[in-house]
Structures are given as structure tokens and as C-alpha cells.
Specification:
- The chain is α+β, with helices and mostly antiparallel strands and 370 residues long.
- The protein has two domains: 8-177, Nuclear Transport Factor 2, Chain: A (Roll), CATH 3.10.450.50; 236-369, Nuclear Transport Factor 2, Chain: A.
- Helix content is 24%, strand content 32%.
- It has helices spanning 55-68, 75-78, 95-108, 179-185, 190-204, 236-249, 277-288, 361-369, and strands spanning 79-87, 90-93, 113-124, 128-140, 154-166, 169-177, 260-267, 273-275, 295-306, 310-322, 336-348, 351-359.
- The strands form two sheets. Strands 2-1-6-5-4-3 form a six-stranded mixed sheet.
- The radius of gyration is 21 Å and the shape is globular.
Length: 370
């Protein structure tokens, strides 16, 4: 990994506590204009830019530096030369690829704004700090993009970016965007556009994708039982992992009330917004119907907060399935799909009060019609 090119004195941490406080959240910051410039560190961040007092400041601040202030060259300071950048469409390798993608996005939406909604984080400055940054993208399509010539349409859509950071640099990133909402706001036909882009991608690369069986259990056996982590205290990550496994992999929709408040609020991709358990049932069924063998694996958890203020949990997950059923995606195609997704939960009084889920439904259409 290429080291950050800065004066050594710039990277000396201020006096730091022995343990990072887990109650630092974006909700406490109110707005970026109220974030202090430098000052005493609120947590241990050895090797990180002293401009930022804590990891939440860092994530919000560098996003603003690069995108809002148009400091594209700051990618040299904040992105490792060997970065792996994952999206639903594939993985980019290396900082120069991130440069190219960033410039293309800024040229297509020159007035783009990225409004931070939440930063959930974990880890430490020794093994690496991990963030899950939920944000709203807004901008006007005034330049060419991968979808063609400028439309002049204004778009806004939700995204979540997960970053693994070491010594002031992002070494790996996972980004999911509500891409189908953007396509619709641009005035494009999503099915026709998905077919066209899938054909273009198919013609331009040699596919080496290997597709194995999708199993929620071994062979003819049912899915495994959830094994809770040891300990008597409430574990928010284990609670969310159990919820994913039992509702999605076991299809135990009748257990929803063991995990969710009756009137919990949901926000998801492509205009999905609802309240309550009954709508949750319909949402789950709407994805199980077209993909009867659907399986979800939880790949990473992190959380902040406490029982009094509420637990905020970020889960990065992978969905696999085969389009063999009827539903919102039309006539079954038999195509296998694999999708990256990230979900944020707010747990209050032992149950989920809010859920924000983002996955790239346009990438899903491309796989179905590719």
C-alpha cells in the first residue's frame, strides 16, 4: 500500500484515550458546518489526519473534501494505491480506477451533493477502522454518463459506502447505490436499458463466472439453527444476524415480531417505504417469489450506541438466488443472481425501530436480462 505523502508532523495524533468511545455517531454532529477543525482527539486515530477529531469526522470530512470541494487529488491522500473497490457491478482495482470513476461521476453531475445521514463504525486504529456511511446523493445530469448524453434531469437516491481504513487511507470499499431509482429519474426505460447494457458488457468481456448450488442447508437438510454468541448481555450484531437467518433463510416470517416493533419504519431501494410488520411480510415475499431459492449471508457487522440511546447496527450482506419464479421481475429467466447489499438498523427497547436497506436493483435487472 502506498503511504500517505504528508509531513510526519501532520500525522502525529493528539492525546488519546485508551479506548475508542462507541457513542460517537453522526446524529451528535448535527451538521458538517459545526464539526470542529482539529482539536483534541476524541478517540485513538494514530496515523490519521489531525484535522479530524474522531472517525465520524474523518469519513464525513474526506467525503466533503473530495466531492463537494472538488479536491479530486485528495484521493492520493485518502485512497491506497492497491485499493479494492466493490460494487454490485463488479470490483475496481487500484487508485487510478477510482480516479477515473470519480471524475466520470463528477462530470455527469457537476452540482452533485452528498448529504450524510449516518456513520456506523467499528474496529480500531491498530487492526483498521471500519465505517458504514449512509448518504443521499443529489445532482443534475448535465454531462455524459454510462447511460448516455445528458438529460438535464435532477436525481436523488440513497447509497451506503462501507470503508476499511488504515493510517489515513481507505484500503477497501464496498458501495451500494439505489441505481434503479436514478435510472427512472433520468427518464430511461429500465428493462430496455438493462438489456442494452448487459449486452454491451457481455460483448466486451469474457465471462469466467462460476455458479454453484445455492444452499441454505446442506443437501436435503434444512438450514442450520442459529447459534448465539456466548454471553449474557444483549448483542446487537448477533440479534441482527439471527433476524436475517430466521426470517430470510428459514422463511420464518411469523417470527418478525420477535425482532421488529409493530410500527417500525422501513426505507429501501426504488421507492420502497412502509410501516409495520404486515408490509414487511409483503416485502420479503416480493423477493422470495421471483427467487424461490434465495439465500442471504451476512458478511460483516459493526455497531455503535448503547441500550439507552439505541443500538445502530450496519450489516453488509450477499444475496444469491435463481430467477425461476414469478414476481416484479416478469417472466422467469432461470438466470442466477448475486447481489451486494447493506442494511442499517436502529434497535430501541430490544427491537428494531428503523431499517434502511440499499441494494442495486438495476444491477439485478442486468443479471436477469443479461
Amino acid at each position: 500500500m502506498t503511504e500517505n505523502i504528508q509531513e510526519a508532523s501532520d500525522l502525529q495524533p493528539a492525546a488519546e484515550p485508551a479506548k475508542s468511545p462507541k457513542n460517537i455517531t453522526l446524529a451528535d454532529k448535527i451538521d458538517i458546518q459545526f464539526m470542529p477543525q482539529a482539536g483534541e482527539r476524541a478517540m485513538s486515530m494514530q496515523g490519521f489526519n489531525p484535522r479530524y477529531r474522531d472517525f465520524v469526522d474523518y469519513i464525513i470530512g474526506i467525503t466533503h473534501e473530495i466531492w463537494e470541494e472538488k479536491g479530486i487529488g485528495k484521493l492520493y491522500d485518502y485512497y491506497a494505491n492497491t485499493i479494492h473497490f466493490h460494487t454490485a457491478s463488479g470490483t475496481l482495482y487500484g487508485r487510478e480506477a477510482v480516479f477515473a470513476a470519480s471524475i466520470e461521476a463528477m462530470a455527469a453531475y457537476p452540482d452533485r451533493r452528498l448529504y450524510g445521514h449516518e456513520v456506523i463504525w467499528g474496529g480500531d486504529d491498530q487492526v483498521g477502522l471500519y465505517s458504514s456511511h449512509r448518504l443521499m446523493h443529489e445532482g443534475t445530469n448535465r454531462g455524459w454518463s454510462n447511460y448516455g448524453p445528458p438529460t438535464g434531469k435532477r436525481v436523488n437516491y440513497l447509497a451506503i459506502a462501507d470503508c476499511l481504513c488504515k493510517r489515513n487511507m481507505i484500503v477497501e470499499e464496498w458501495v451500494v447505490r439505489d441505481e434503479l431509482s436514478k435510472v427512472l429519474q433520468l427518464g430511461l426505460d429500465p428493462i430496455a436499458t438493462a438489456k442494452e447494457m448487459a449486452a454491451r458488457q457481455r460483448d466486451s468481456e469474457f465471462s469466467t463466472r462460476i455458479v454453484g448450488d445455492i444452499e441454505r442447508g446442506i443437501g436435503q437438510l434444512p438450514p442450520r439453527e442459529w447459534v448465539a454468541r456466548p454471553g449474557e448481555a444483549f448483542d446487537p450484531e448477533d440479534f441482527i444476524g439471527q433476524m436475517f437467518h430466521e426470517i430470510w433463510n428459514w422463511r420464518l416470517l411469523n417470527k418478525a415480531r420477535e425482532f421488529y416493533h409493530e410500527n417500525f419504519a422501513f426505507e429501501g431501494p426504488t421507492g420502497r417505504s412502509f410501516l409495520g410488520i404486515n408490509d414487511l411480510h409483503n416485502y420479503v415475499l416480493s423477493l422470495l417469489s421471483p427467487f424461490p431459492d434465495l439465500a442471504i449471508s451476512a458478511d460483516h457487522f459493526c455497531h455503535v450506541g448503547d441500550a439507552e440511546s439505541g443500538w445502530r447496527v450496519a450489516t453488509r450482506w450477499t444475496l444469491r438466488g435463481t430467477h425461476t419464479g414469478y414476481g416484479r421481475y416478469g417472466e422467469p429467466t432461470g438466470k442466477p443472481v448475486r447481489l451486494l447489499g447493506i442494511t442499517h438498523h436502529l434497535i430501541q427497547d430490544g427491537l428494531i425501530a428503523n431499517e434502511w436497506t440499499v441494494f442495486d436493483e438495476f444491477a439485478l435487472l442486468m443479471q436477469i436480462h443479461g
